[in-house]
Amino acid sequence: MQKMKLKCITCGKEYSAKEIRYNCDCGDLLEVIIDFSLFNRTSEEWKQYFDNRKDKFAFLRYKDFLLPDLPEDKIITLGEGDTPLYQANEKVQDYFGVKDLWFKHEGMSPPTLSFKDRGMVAGVSWANYLGIKKVACASTGDTSAAMSAYAANSKTIEAIVLLPEGKISFEQLAQAISYNATTIGLKTDFDGCMKLVKDLTAKHKIYLLNSMNSIRIEGQKAIGIEVVQKLKWDVPDWFIIPVGNAGNISALGKGLRELFDLGIITKIPRIAGVETEAAPPLYKSFINNWAELKPIKAKKTIASAIQIGNPVSFKKAVRELKYFNGVMEQVSETELMDAKTIVDASGISVCPNSGTALAGLKKLVKKGTIKPNEKVVVIITAHGAKFSKSIQEYHENKENKFANQPKIINANLNSIEKIIGEKK
Amino acid sequence: MQKMKLKCITCGKEYSAKEIRYNCDCGDLLEVIIDFSLFNRTSEEWKQYFDNRKDKFAFLRYKDFLLPDLPEDKIITLGEGDTPLYQANEKVQDYFGVKDLWFKHEGMSPPTLSFKDRGMVAGVSWANYLGIKKVACASTGDTSAAMSAYAANSKTIEAIVLLPEGKISFEQLAQAISYNATTIGLKTDFDGCMKLVKDLTAKHKIYLLNSMNSIRIEGQKAIGIEVVQKLKWDVPDWFIIPVGNAGNISALGKGLRELFDLGIITKIPRIAGVETEAAPPLYKSFINNWAELKPIKAKKTIASAIQIGNPVSFKKAVRELKYFNGVMEQVSETELMDAKTIVDASGISVCPNSGTALAGLKKLVKKGTIKPNEKVVVIITAHGAKFSKSIQEYHENKENKFANQPKIINANLNSIEKIIGEKK
Questions:
Q1: Structure pTM?
Q2: Cα(B60)–Cα(B58) distance, rounded to whole angstroms?
Q3: Residue of A nearest to B410 (CA)
Q4: Mind giving me the DSSP string for B54-93?
Q5: Quick one: closest CA in B to A185, which residue?
């Protein structure tokens, strides 16, 4: 019996989950609705069920909660998930002003080191279930890497990546290329690529895997449930998450809401989304009492993955933020890189986009929105090793607060001893 | 009661494990000897013990087998280990000529994406146990990244990294810098740095964490035991591993030997070590009936982590290779990059150094040394995302067998359809 369907978030019109469709006839976004009542499990039975499946990989462990209609033999997994939940050390706690501080590090996820793997195990497996032979997206970074890796591993699915020619370095491309995606550089900008990938997937049996695909987003719910299972179904006071296209904050909220509805968690956390000052459309809506989206032209930011002025999942995100008594914050380039660097320097390498969430935490503590004794989980979305240029630029500039520069000296013991304070 | 001691691999002289020492008085290498009899466990009890600890992080799960004398409260962990054991897909099986083919992917290890994390959780935790405040190494790549991350997380231990100034790009440095290591560029070459780090650590209470440190090497035994536990204590016919300084192949062999001695595994696998043609000192010894080491000047290779002509752990490695009826192989730059690229293209991104092991597998199958029906586990030592330059160089050159180049076209649907074969 089918447990999933697609439903318009505005007009409520319903479609079969197996229908390949990204928008309602009315034009608005769709979301996956799961009829959990068909499982006939109490909240205790749900917890037991997940706890008994700890030795399974994350997507399979939570499949009933993510994509129950997906047959197990259609799953294409690359061992994604089960990422570390790091506790911040004292130095980091002091910097941010909260003691009970945790980092859910999705940048440690196999295979491509970002939270996109959570979505793509869902999206590409679903494509596999539907018998689709081609998947496409218009991303140039983490999204294309993750989509390409899963497609590559399937053997039967071709990945097609569209990107603006001349605006992308080969290094940024390296992952999609190495995962054997058909990589097409178009003489246009990113918006031009996005339009063409929509046209392409509308016309042919090619599955669109940008974040407007609601099946893909379901996979990302695993991040939140993994946190609360690790905490023995206890719930932190706050989740902090960087916001770009607003897909991930929507997935986090939807998942936690469903867990609460099922009684698996019994407390509603608050959620803080954080944008950069270069691209703050949700922040602007928030300070105007959740006003309607006014798309803006995103300025250049080192947090390139969230340089988005017209977020696709705006409506979904606002709905979740309202439900979770959420807030939005915006941060400067300096704030986000300082925050990133402090966490890096505790042995936990994070991407600049996650630095945004971290800097937002600091501001919200200072404002008194987040209390020093509250339990806070920050979602880290990618590994810092994928963004070494940002590390280079920060540390090369002595003006930066936490810049750590190499000391260049002559090759003798005496000189080394002086630097490290061992000179007697 | 102390269960560990240090013992010279040549003259047999013994030292306390708590003594800070890297060589015997006779000048040769030391190794850790664990008196497993003091645990009083049968082989079944050992297996049960490890199986019951599956919910613990890898280093703690195996601590009795790695560093039994280390108190638990001295461990500095960053969630390392529990890396995926990937099964190769059919396309990859076909390329290498073996069906039962697995990749133990240490490049997916938190926090720094290489097998060095396995060694550094041991080495830095041991330094913490000994009350040491400074650790040092002379590496420029994965070793310094891992050492720096663990030291950073400890809060009390400073990391000192020595490297040859002007011979290292800032990008290579990015990780050690971001993990807040004291990074010293010396006006000398790598050998000069190695000599100075030895002098420095001999003179001061600074702990040397290059691979001549036998405590660190014990941590790397976790890789082999994790493989066989995952296989329900079954043992593959072959382990294939890239060889540079020969520390990791020594650790793999020592760990498997100890597991066999304890009856935890009941079969001896074979081990194949693989070097590049640019730096094949162990291969040369092997084809000369395990002749004594003749240090060579390593030529430049894209597998930069194993560009080593005078491997520190030569004697240990040869001992293990003899015990495991092992072989050595050497491969060309083209062979290793082709092999890497084929595995990348299956959705599993690997470093060029691991490409060496992969190419060696292909050659050994062709030679008949490895049979097509044998079960083979290749140790992948780091994530490909840390080596995007090698990806770029390979795919940019059309001459390369599996080069995947972006197609640059005008921004219209028609042109895209032509490329992806959807033009009706």
A1: 0.96
A2: 6
A3: A187
A4: TTS-HHHHTHHHH-TTS-GGG----------EEEPPHHHH
A5: B408
Q: Which residues contact B153 (CB under 8 A, 6 or more apart)?
A: A89, A346, A347, A348, B76, B78
Per-residue pLDDT of chain B in tens (424 residues, 90 and over written 9): 899 999 999 999 999 999 999 999 999 999 999 999 999 999 999 999 999 999 899 999 999 999 999 999 999 999 999 999 999 999 999 999 999 999 999 999 999 999 999 999 999 999 999 999 999 999 878 999 999 999 999 989 999 999 888 777 777 788 999 999 999 999 988 888 989 999 999 999 999 999 999 999 999 999 999 999 999 999 999 999 999 999 999 999 999 999 999 999 999 999 999 999 999 999 999 999 999 999 999 999 999 989 999 999 999 999 999 999 999 999 999 999 999 999 999 999 999 999 999 999 999 999 999 999 999 999 999 999 988 889 999 999 999 999 999 999 999 999 999 999 887 6
ipTM of the complex: 0.95
**Chain B residues near residue A160 by CB distance under 8 angstroms:** 420
Q: Using alpha carbons, select from B341, B337, B335 the residue that is nearest to residue B92.
A: B341
Written as six digits, the tokens of B75 are 């461990």
- Which residues from A are below 8 Å from B183, CB to CB? 404-407
CATH topology for B85-109+221-396? Rossmann fold (3.40.50)
- Rounded Cα distance between A130 and A151, Å, is 14
Give the helix, strand, coil percentages of chain A, each rounded to 5: 45, 15, 40
Residues of A in contact with B58 (CB under 8 A): none
Q: Using CA coordinates, name the residue in chain B closest to A144.
A: B347
Which residues of chain A lie closer than 8 angstroms to B347, CB-CB?
Answer: 78, 111, 148-153, 179
Closest-CA residue in chain A for B199? Answer: A413
Domains B43-79+113-216 and B85-109+221-396 share a fold: yes
pLDDT tens per residue, range A364-390: 999 999 999 999 999 999 999 988 889
- Domain ranges (residues) in chain A: 43-79+113-216, 85-109+221-396
pLDDT tens profile A15-65: 999 999 999 999 999 999 999 999 999 999 999 999 999 989 999 999 999
Nearest to B153 among A54, A152, A346 (CB): A346
In B, which residues are within 8 Å of A174 by CB distance? 385, 388, 391-392, 395
Of A134, A180, A413, the CB nearest to B420: A134
Interchain pair B409, A192: CB under 8 A: no
Contact state of A113 with B179 under an 8 Å Cβ cutoff: no
Full strand arrangement of the beta sheet holding A134-137: A207-208, A134-137, A158-164, A182-186, B407-409
CA distances B291 to A243, B10, B286, B294, Å, are 60, 16, 7, 8
Three-state DSSP class for residue A38: helix
CA–CA distance, B139 with B112 (Å, rounded to integer) = 14
Residues of B in contact with A84 (CB under 8 A): 78-79, 110-111
CATH architecture entry for B43-79+113-216 = 3-Layer(aba) Sandwich (3.40)
Nearest to B347 among A54, A84, A149 (CB): A149
Which residues neighbour B131 within 8 Å (Cβ) at sequence distance 6 or greater?
none
A386 to B385: CB separation less than 8 angstroms, yes or no: yes
Q: Would the CB atoms of B187 and A78 count as touching at under 8 Å? A: no
Note every long-range contact of A57-64, with CB atoms under 8 Å and residues 24 or more positions apart, other chains counting.
Answer: A57/A81, A57/A82, A58/A82, A58/A118, A58/A222, A58/A226, A59/A118, A59/A121, A59/A122, A59/A125, A59/A219, A59/A222, A62/A221, A62/A222, A62/A225, A62/A226, A64/A39
